[in-house]
Amino acid sequence: MDANEDLVEYDEVDPSLVGAGAGELDELEEFGGPYDNNTLVSAHNWQVGQEVEVYSRSKDRWIAATIRKIMTENGQDWIQVYYKNSSQMKDVRADSDDIRRLKAPPPPPLPGSKSHLSGPSTQIAITRQTSDGKSLHTQRETVFSKDAKENYAQTLDFTQILHKVGAISRQVEGGLYLIKRVASVVHRIAAAEQQHVMACKKVLDQEKQKLKDKMMDEMTRCVDAWDSTERYLRGNMDKQEELAKNMEQKISNPMMQFYTDAELKRKAILKDEKKYGVEMNRAKVGVQKNLRNCQKLIKSCLLAKAEQEEKKKGGSIGKKKKFGAGMLKWAKNMMRGSLSELQNQAATAAKNYAASIEFANERQHQYYDKELPLICKQFEMLERSRINALHKYLHMLNEISRAHAEPVMKFIEDHKRLLSEMSPDKDITDFTAHTIRMYGPVPPMEPYTYQLPCTQKDIKAGRFQGNPNSFFYATLEHCMDMQKGKYDLDVPIIVVNLIKAIQDLGGMTVEGIFRLSAKKEDLVRLRAQFDKGDVEVRETSPHVPAGLLKQWLRELAEPLIPTELYEEAIKIAKSIKDEDPKLTKSVIDGFVTQLPALNQKVLEHICTLAGKIADLSSVNKMTYSNLAIVFAPGFLRNPSEDPAEMLENSKYETAFTNHLLQAVAGPGRIA
């Protein structure tokens, strides 16, 4: 049989980072050395505890069994198996045709590739969609049919939760810590056993000397019986001492060495992951910094142009009709050149801004398509090695104990049956499925877009404001001023109509609402419609109004939660504990009362929508935690430009938004 028949390989992926083959246990031998006479893996790649089928010639059929022992006799490998349905045992030659492996499960799909696992009534698909526009847009989506869960559970791996690499890292760290603690327990038990043996031998020596000094019993049979008992006790002590040494040399020391080496590998992987994260945030900061620089230069151009026009009329830039005293002071500091010079500077800044967007998008694709999957695969290989090592050394402890503790055979058999359930595939699948249930599948990337209200040609032509009647890049107050006299509403009409469209189009029950992106051309069309004053939504997909609502929130001139309250929000996220929901709501309600009245009303509308969506999360897969990931960038904006601080605070921004959505969700919850 092929030794590598159960390896899973992917194109363009380092084979050392994937695979669940029998060879992993061979690689781990360097940490602990081989077994004495009985091994875990034979020359024919059979493993102790492996599920197999054995052919019964008397019944003319294959019967399910489990490998109990692997032996070598006169150069020939023999396998001892026991049948599951009868608990009978049988010896079979390792190279015989009367034993075969169970059929392996299908290999897992590689995230980002087009692959389908289908059966009579079940299928799953993980797809990538790429547009041919100016920039590359990638979406990852897991599609479940009604009966796909069982097949899907057999094919999960860490790359399917790469958006929760922190959870993977904590799991690997916790798994290695278990290895350390098991090694410590075995070491301490072995040391205690050796001390116990020394004390027992000391007692036997003392009592033997006393009997030698004053032997009064003349009954030969009694003396012989005691001598025999003493020899038995000494022999038992010798066996216990041998057991303690074997536990120390074959289990405790190799396990601790494995832990040391694996911990170094884990820290190296973490170092790479942190480096990639910092590079991602550096690209993000570059986009934001260039955007702010462009905005400042455009304001300078506006003021310079206004001053030029006022001078032609014989007026002054300081006239209160158009500029206040504060604006005039700011203008004098910014205007350090002629209007044409400022326009050239603004155009150059816009060019740099566009270049930084292109670089950030390329960096983002490299991060999510190459670097993060590589990190996840490295963590998965480390976790597989850890699980196999734990299985190996616990099984070895089982075998050593069996040789020295025949009276506790029942316990050993129960322990061995428990060990037979362990496997990297099962444990990694269980962990991955749990993480997906908690956080959802990998969310799609949202590419950076050009956010200036005017193009480079507009800047050179002296047009800087774009559309003054646009809801985008405006303050909430400006949005209300635009609709004054038209709509009797307490929030901007764009909020009301987009939320209504999401509900009317069935968005409450659509899987991935707000998480999945709409088509770019649909968003551009609906946005242009609002800019022209047409506020009616005539779309067919709820993803379009949902996507535009996210855009509007993120492009507000001032964030929904004012910048001066950002630090307080982060402090609340760090201090809140989930154990007391009433206290959490009280703290959040107190925070919300500090917001301006208009901001509170807009927040209530959005949180009410989020609450209705979360109530149907069993259908749409959008829990409060998933919605918090979507809305956090629109609610909060970090005023710092430090990449490390931005990376650190992102998790607290999401946590705060999660608590905020739950506390405010539902009508009438804001005073």
Task: Please give a structural write-up.
This protein has 671 residues and is of the alpha+beta class. It is built from 20 helices and eight strands. It has a five-stranded antiparallel beta sheet with strand order 4-3-2-1-5, with no helix packed on it. A three-stranded antiparallel beta sheet has the order 6-7-8. The longest helix is centred in the middle third of the chain and has 93 residues. 29% of the residues are buried.
Keyword list:
disordered C terminus, alpha+beta, disordered N terminus, 671 residues, five-stranded antiparallel beta sheet, three-stranded antiparallel beta sheet
Q: What proportion strand?
A: 5-15%
Q: What pattern of helices and strands is seen along the backbone?
A: HHEEEEEEEEHHHHHHHHHHHHHHHHHH
Task: Name the quaternary structure.
Answer: single chain
Structural class: alpha+beta
Number of helices: 20
Given as residue ranges, the uncertain stretches (5+ residues, pLDDT < 50) are 1-43, 104-146, 319-325, 667-671
Number of strands: 8
The average pLDDT is 76
Write the topology of this structure.
Blueprint lengths: L22 H5 L1 H4 L18 E6 L4 E13 L2 E8 L5 E5 L5 E3 L13 E4 L4 E6 L11 E5 L4 H5 L11 H49 L6 H93 L12 H10 L4 H66 L4 H12 L3 H16 L16 H5 L15 H7 L10 H12 L15 H12 L11 H12 L11 H10 L5 H12 L4 H19 L1 H4 L3 H12 L7 H22 L7
Antiparallel strand pairs: 1-2, 1-5, 2-3, 3-4, 6-7, 7-8
